Amino acid sequence: MKALLLDVGGVVFRSGSEMLALLGEREPTTRSVTARRGPLGPEPDPDWERMLRGEVTERGYWALRAAEIGAVLGRADWSTHEFMVELYEQPGVEIIRPVARRLVADARAGGLRLGVLTNDLAAFHGDGPLGDLSALGDVDVLVDGSVTGILKPDPRSYAAAIDGLGVAPGEIVFVDDMPWNVEGGRAAGLHAVQLDLRDPDAAFTQARSALGLAPLGSAQ
User: Fold this and answer.
1) What is the CATH number of the domain that holds 108?
2) Per-residue pLDDT averaged across 15-19, rounded?
């Protein structure tokens, strides 16, 4: 393997479902809503299930959550971007998964190329502190569907990332948390790993193994 390609939301950044739990702690009036947070909440989340069935898009799902929580907080005109600022741009909150940060550092140290393939970085985070991914350091290619207008799992999105990385598809390890994006990556010839939000570390263990990197905790 010669390259690592990562999704952002849920993979590099902690998932929105995790951030909703923190919002519920910070704003108790939202707890009846934040109890429904994808696979991580104590209550079923029918809108999440609709998204998994393809009845609503991922962006549509987060627009629904923004509207629900905005209504509770008296922000009836809240945009998804404003909602994401409330979720993610809080002082003292670690946004990037430590295992993702370590994977990126070790991949770089091992001479691997690094790419990001996301649908929503600019749409959700804009010009804020998260929008430039500077915490990851330099990346060789950043393909953002909210800039290109081409969203995963459209084959053209993977083709753009592959072209930017400059290696064969079969030499790229790709990590994403949405099943249809993982399927699209496999169809494009990538070694695709699905991240389960209930056990995100497992996906990073798989990715490290596929890249030939030492397991975390082993002698380096």
Assistant:
1) 3.40.50.1000
2) 96
